[in-house]
Amino acid sequence: MTVLYRLGATAGEIAARFGARTAAEDPWAGGTVSPGSFAPVVTAGREFIAGPRPPGEAERRLVPRLWGVPPPPSAGDPGRSVLTVRNPDAPFWIGNLRNSEFRCLVPATAVMLWGGTDPTTGKRRQVWLSCADQPLFACAGVWKDSEVASFALLTCPANAALRELGVERMPVILPADPAALRVWLLGGWDRASTLVAPYASGLTQLG
User: Fold this and answer.
1) Displacement of CA 88 from its chain's centroid (Å)
2) Can you tell me the distance from the alpha carbon of 129 to that of 171, in angstroms, rounded to the nearest whole number?
3) What per-residue confidence (pLDDT) applies to 103?
4) pLDDT value at position 121?
5) CATH number at residue 76
6) Structural domains in the chain (count)
7) Structural domain of 96
């Protein structure tokens, strides 16, 4: 499971990369994002979700969201936030995912994944993943409008290169193609769900 990622870009750089509007005073200057902290995400939704979208292309906005969604009552531990989506068809997620207003891009420059156990230390390996074809990439995210608007990362089975290091799952990294980003933010779930797939091993850099 992803429990840490880096976003080594400023708010202005992120907005320019993903065609989003950001507030002039946005303080994000780059850094590491951990669970329970705020991070920039790109959304094409509205602050208040009611009725159909207005005509025309929705504006993309760079906004802060808290990483970690409050769990469903059935989880039994209200204090443990949900960081990732393993099953996008689960009742807890499907309503938000089918409504593109709640899908978002989660910018990153590297993500940390837990690999297999190092035989010399007996500890699990930390594997850092970045993309060879896009230094600043977008993970597929979904946000929920609770007391504090928060987001989670979608995950999928790891690609072959990561499996060799003992990694079982990876975040869904969206292709560099602008059309893919548009589908995730604006498309129907029938199209957006096809993007929930491992990133190609040949396009990943591991460290």
Assistant:
1) 13
2) 10
3) 97
4) 86
5) 3.90.1680.10
6) 1
7) 4-23+32-46+60-199
Q: Looking at the domain assignment, is residue 54 inside a domain?
A: no
**Residue 152 forms part of a structural domain:** yes
Which of 136, 94, 128 is CA-nearest to residue 3? 128
The CA–CA distances, whole Å, from 161 to 30, 114, 128, 134, 198 equal 28, 14, 12, 18, 11
Please answer whether residues 200 and 160 qualify as being in contact, where contact means their C-beta atoms are separated by less than 8 angstroms.
Answer: no
Give domain status of residue 133, yes or no.
yes
Q: Residue 28: is it exposed, middle or buried by C-beta count within 10 angstroms (0-12/13-18/19+)? A: buried
Q: What is the pTM of this model?
A: 0.93
25 pLDDT more than 90:
no
Which stretches of the chain are DSSP H helices?
11-18, 91-98, 160-163, 178-186, 189-192
**Which tens digits make up the pLDDT trace of 101-158?**
999 999 999 999 999 988 888 889 999 999 999 999 999 999 998 889 999 999 999 9
Contacts of residue 178, Cβ cutoff 8 Å, sequence gap at least 6:
19
